[in-house]
Amino acid sequence: MGALQITLGVIGVAVSIVAWGVFAAAVVRQVRIIRLGQPDGTRYGPFAPRLKTLIKEFAAHTRMNKFRRVGPWHWLVMWGFLLGSLALFEAYGEIFDPHFAWPIIGHWAPWQLLLELLGIGTVVGGVALAIIRQANHPRRADRQSRFQGSDFAAAYFVEAVVVIEGLGILGVKAFKISSGIEDPALWSSFVTQPLAQILPSATAAVSIMALIKLLSGMIWLVVVGRNLTMGVAWHRFSAFFNIYFKREDDGGVALGKLKPMMSGGEPLDFEEADPEKDVFGAGQVEDFSWKGWLDFSTCTECGRCQSQCPAWNTGKPLSPKMLITQLRDHAYAKAPYLMAGGKKDMAGDEIGLTGDDPHAGIDVLALAESERALVGDAEANGVIDPDMLWSCTNCGACVEQCPVDIEHVDHIVDMRRYQVMIESNFPTELNSLFKNLENKGNPWGQNAKDRMAWAEDLDFEVPVFDGEFGDTEYLFWVGCAGAFEDRAKKTTRAVAELLHMADVKYTVLGPEETCTGDPARRAGNEFVFQMLAQQNVEVLNSVFENTEPAKRKIVVTCAHCFNTLANEYPDLGGNYEVVHHTQLLNRLVREKRLTPMAPVAQDITYHDPCFLGRHNQVYEAPRELVGAAGANLREMPRHGDRSMCCGAGGARMWMEEQIGKRINVERVDEALGTAPSKIATGCPFCRVMLNDGVTSRQSDGSASEDLEVVDVSQLLLSAVKRGSDKEPVAVGAPEAEAGGEAEPDGKADTAGAADAASEKPGSTDES
């Protein structure tokens, strides 16, 4: 051990003491800050399934690999960071003594190979990630870059440290070989062995390279420790916890049902709730749970959520990534005030800090941050702009794509809940929606007695529940759209006719049915949702009162009703087997109870409804039905779990779209790129939105006047019904011109298909 080694070693140790001290203090502070959130005891167990999910997601990179061009490089960097830590700690000995190696494994050939792979992997992976970042730089126009709004300096710093670490590992090893300290087999050192042949024999170089390897890590610790909001760095630690504590303990993403309203770690009971004490959604950042704060801390700013967001892709102010980072920055800036005991009541008056000088010792910036409204425009100095909050369609693309399991939709709805129920501050169009739901039990404000109007001119009787379920197979949940919206009625009629033809015993509720409450809940009006849901659960439980649980089956045509009945009603005591009509019809075709005989020989593109696909993973059944009907399926570029939203979810169906391009028009433009004869879907909301988009494009000459939007059930009915009549009709034949063979009632979806009562507000394109 020479003077050089001693000097370098002392420098390394001194810097390390400071660096590890800064980092340890930062970890403690970050944990304290995250714990400022509301309690949530649902996240801790069961242990085994959560641990299994954690291991699968990080070891196999199951979620990261959704972006295949990025996944392998990030996988290399991740393992380089985890296992490379052993090489980092080895540097403490190598600085003082170039001959130092870990006991037992230090000269073991497999360890030498692992070091080789770690060094190469981190260098190659770090460089590749930097290139990918440059290739997707925000200089690209029209919001094409998923990195727009991300912290590039922080990302490049992290990537630079990764590369330096890898070079340090390789450099130490190469100089050990060139100096004769080690003589590993070529297969275990296939890069460093040839490199050592051109390097001088210098043991001092081993210590220098070891110091470089060590200092790069120590600098990283100091920088990260001083910047708690550097998510691109902190996710290396917090991502493991965020994955483990994700909402669904079975490993699923936070889609399907919404997180219930929580207060003090327990579901909120509206009958006993006190607005002065209980938390109603999220009106202040401290109203989010600790898991929400962990979400904010874990965001890597990779922008995958942003790249998939329909609002962002159509010029609206919502970026799920920037919403999370804005909440993060606000939370950490406000944290000193909260940790000092600061708290404001609903009127904005201070109730937490007392005394003659209550603000003494609190950072003035934290005090200023405490005065900001969580939701408010620029004039009100709000953290989240209202247009950002209300642009969300709840499509779930952000949650589906996030590699670290951030639960964007739950946080957005929590903020909406507070705005609706406490502030009464929401888009004016929702006033009519809420009133209609409360007073009429449906969004359109129609009378319950008209719920069976869709069945009036069918040539068979639709059975209405008469008090005895008996040997009935399914309760057919028609839904509000299926009962009142003219375009959706065609789907209802088609499904009823197919069930009749297949001799399926079913019944409908008729006037006893009311809205499931989905639009109210997604808009933030939890009170109205609870009212409607409890009413429906009571009715359904009475229908199935004498039916064994395994036979309590419901078939629905609306993706939103499907999601609510299947995923959210169990929390209220409503446990049923709920199937979507495409699933049931597909099964009937497989069982030969429905036999398509006259192929719909047309090019069809299928639009995945968000609440059927992403929220509930139903992708194959509707596609199989399109094939069974004899149509040629042409997929849009964005389909499956990356499908583009139609724009109707999150109660957006009842709100004007005044910013940017209409989402439904964007989706129709994508569909037109497949040159389809028809656009098929499996949800009445999607059908309305897509039809409006088609009408807009037909008016400007971008779409053929013959292009129709149909439900998958109509395609099947056409193939089955014409086949049963033994009158196959060729596409384009006169018999089909009146409305297309997919329309059982001979009426195509046209601009005037719906009456004034069933028109979506703003259904014509004003852009």
UniProtKB/TrEMBL annotation:
Transmembrane segments: 6-28, 73-93, 113-132, 153-175, 195-223
Keyword annotations: 4Fe-4S, Iron, Iron-sulfur, Membrane, Metal-binding, Oxidoreductase, Transmembrane, Transmembrane helix
Domain 4Fe-4S ferredoxin-type stretches: 290-320, 380-412
Region annotated Disordered, chain positions: 723-767
Pfam family, one: CCG
Name of the protein this chain belongs to: (Fe-S)-binding protein
